[in-house]
Amino acid sequence: MSLLIVDQATKRFGGVTAVNEVTFAVTKGETVGLLGPNGSGKTTLINLISGALPVSGGEVRLNGQLLTGKRPDQIARAGVARTFQLVRILPSLTLTENVMVPAVFGAKSHWGPAAEQVAKDALDKVGLAHRADVQAADLTYIDQKRLELARALAAEPELLLLDEWLAGLNPTELGQGIALIRSLTDLGISILMVEHIMEAIRALCPRSLVMNSGRLIADGPTGEVLSDPHVVAAYLGEVDEDA
């Protein structure tokens, strides 16, 4: 059963079409990779789904509910949460206070002690429960990433959008990050993840989508998609068969 349906989604910036009639669906509990070279439109597509940018054409639905035209806070209430390429935390607040914010403004709108409990549960899921009272500014980079993920989880989403969440991690941290994302599938959350690290895509995503120049050029099992000549050409450029 489809949770997310993106139908002919289009985004234009003046004369530039950044996302060009993209159509796909994500089923409940599915983890899907969103791939493509830099500038292919991946983050713009995530912004359309989350409401950070309005669509120029087409529509987005979650559980049959039309998200197109809604504000980001309304889309969050509907069950969509996201992370960003650049970590966005509130450095002057504690970890618990950081995570309470989306617990209040997320899908179920908890308040007071209930919001604090949701925040603590989210911190526990990402391995930061023991640092709940630490100021966010004191965290290492990997723990800032964990905190941002906890903030997304505290919104109690049905659909989680990860925009290069694994970027910038060293090999040890990468292994920890992959394990953490894999653990989220046990919660029944659907995940659409933009990622350039193929090790992570192969480990986490049975299915992948590939964009190039704003268009969706491949959608299928990850192994098949990554060996598709059109995908290889998009990443490496056209191969000269006479060479």
Mean pLDDT: 91
How big is the Rg?
18 Å
Q: Approximately what portion of the residues adopt beta-strand conformation?
A: 25-35%
Widest sheet: strand ordering: 6-7-8-3-9-10
**Helicity, in percent?**
25-40%
Query: Number of DSSP strands?
Result: 10
- End-to-end CA span: 47 Å
Which stretches are poorly predicted, pLDDT < 50 over at least 5 residues? 239-243
Q: Helix segment count?
A: 9
Class of the largest domain, according to the CATH hierarchy? Alpha Beta
CATH homologous superfamily label of the largest domain? P-loop containing nucleotide triphosphate hydrolases
Structural class: alpha/beta
Q: Which term fits the overall shape?
A: globular
Tell me the count of domains: 2
The CATH topology of the largest domain = Rossmann fold
Order of helices and strands: EEEHEEHEHHHEHEHEEHH
Biggest sheet layout: 6 strands, mixed
CATH architectural name of the largest domain: 3-Layer(aba) Sandwich
Which characteristics define this entry?
243 residues; 2 domains; disordered C terminus; four-stranded antiparallel beta sheet; alpha/beta; Rossmann fold
Give an account of the 3D structure.
The protein has 243 residues and is an alpha/beta fold. The protein has two domains: 1-78 and 189-243, Rossmann fold (3-Layer(aba) Sandwich); 80-156, no CATH class. Helices cover 37% and strands 26% of the residues. Strands 6-7-8-3-9-10 form a six-stranded mixed β-sheet, sandwiched between helices. Helix 6 links the parallel strand 7 (159-163) and strand 8 (190-194). The longest helix has 14 residues, at 112-125. Residues 239-243 have low confidence and may be disordered.
